[in-house]
């Protein structure tokens, strides 16, 4: 008997059908995008070439999908086997997050029918951060497929294949730790070349990769706490609070280092004044800081960590913090010069909403049909 | 050394390496090519006739701008998928004096600057944007472009234009009238804009010639007679005489983001004419420096992968033998599992 079990239950619930409607609306506008061009659906323009499809679907979306990465780091590199019950749902969520991030990048591409050019070595520009991000994300999606394959094989009862896969799985787990380290830091490095268009509060140049990586890891751990808490409530399962409480120690360390580097970079370069300028950028920075500091304060107390609800609040705050850090850097405080503005159109938002709906629907189907969640009696 | 300590040390090392990238010296700016060509735009000579805008459209086969029922070849308000070059106007107060910042006006040009160390070329993942090794022209190949628009977000001047309203759009920008099918530079001709400019406000030449010419103009005393060449900087036959204006002592593009091959001079501060204030260091040099410091030609990731594979293998193989179904083989051994409640 596997230590993971499918959650039995109906697929076509009311929330599922509601998500289906959202997905259909999103897919409709996606059809318009392919028929009439990006401009027919999205408000992106010459000054703001990257809108929410890049910044949310790819930059924030893949960071939210870092649960599998963060846990793999803890379980397999730091050898903390007790977190094992959390890994399969985390890998599954990462798989969907990344697959849809990849899909988002695809339909946002202006010349998507030539996307295979990025896989042709003769075209590669090794100076390009974007090349590293592109290749690394594509590879990682395949790695996540392989990391999740045991759940499918168990369900199929393919014991021989399972035994064979388990022999080589260590290599893919190692890749599953290395690749996100590379592309999550590179997603930050993408900001370097945008230079002065990125507000000084977010343009840390050489420090971009470290900040992006630290926030991706905090978001990864937070999403594990978030998903485990919701799975416990939604599927009426025993909460994994003691396990989650321990994860928060890793989060405390990560936020502390992040805040230290962030504030030092600003202070040493004389940019702290921008924080108190009272303008949109300054206020967004203060909000972002508050969202990072609140969970730190909550998690520093042991009593709070053992409180499932407070822990969930802290995790949600961190998810918003990491997402806002990215939104601020790439969009909200991004300034290409006078004459340009951007706010996503309704159809543009609906595409992103539809994509997220598809992601959640697929997750629900998978946990109900495949051995993903940890069996209660083993927990 | 216990394995736990080893792991801590490894993780510490990785963090230190990543932090090291923060202080590691990125590469220098790329130097200008020996025979780089360029354009010098002198706003004080520009009369705003927009002959350059029209010639650009004609030579590059770009459609006119429609204003109601009017077909206009020179009315574009900014660069776009169908406009590579525009002349704009700066106005202040009563706008009575040309080339004066206060109560004056000035013309301004917007087009690709053909950077010496371009962000668009550095950022393009598929080498669709490249710098010609002889002329330094920033060229585009639509057949490899995937439309990621990293060139657009990277360009400090927001020059590359994606055709958003075309289901099969591509990137459009000034290619110095030397793209396949046009090839004016290769044929020894002038780019369209410089060819038709009646005053030499848009002047063609090598970057070196243009830089020397610009320095000479800036050194001229306001009011003294200056002989301005037309078309080509080296052209001594086609010139006209005019009193030198009071130039701003700034050659925009001499140093900005590592220098540009299209340079601007004016009587009004250049940042008032739509040219952003930029540091001398190219952002491409910083980005590439960080990237190559971290990756060292993929050697660093390869070593990291080997190390990770070793550690993961050790941490996952403990229970293989007594697990015939293989189902528990991913589960790390209980011995290493400290602090289990």
TrEMBL record, chain A:
GO cellular component, one term: plasma membrane
Gene from which this protein is expressed: hybB
RNA-binding listed as a keyword: no
Protein name: Ni/Fe-hydrogenase cytochrome b subunit
Organism (species): Sedimenticola selenatireducens
Keywords, sorted A to Z: Cell membrane, Membrane, Transmembrane, Transmembrane helix
Top-rank lineage group of the source organism: Bacteria
Subcellular location: Cell membrane
Segments traversing the membrane: 12-30, 50-78, 90-109, 129-152, 164-182, 210-235, 247-268, 280-298, 310-334, 346-366
Entry membrane topology: Multi-pass membrane protein
Claim: NADP is one of the keywords in the record: no
Single GO biological process annotation from the record: anaerobic respiration
InterPro entries to which the protein is assigned, alphabetical: FDH_cytochrome_b556_subunit
Predominant subcellular localization, coarse grouping: membrane
Automatic annotation (TrEMBL), chain B:
CDD domains referenced in this protein's UniProt entry, alphabetically: HybA_like
Cellular compartments per GO CC: cell envelope
Keyword Flavoprotein included in the entry's annotation: no
Domain 4Fe-4S ferredoxin-type: 37-67, 103-134, 136-165
SUPFAM superfamilies: 4Fe-4S ferredoxins
Places the protein is found: Cell envelope
Annotated region described as Disordered, given as residue ranges: 316-341
Keywords: 4Fe-4S, Iron, Iron-sulfur, Metal-binding, Repeat
Coiled coil: none
Transmembrane segment boundaries: none
Keyword Hydrolase set for record: no
Name of the protein this chain belongs to: Hydrogenase 2 operon protein HybA
Gene expressing this chain: hybA
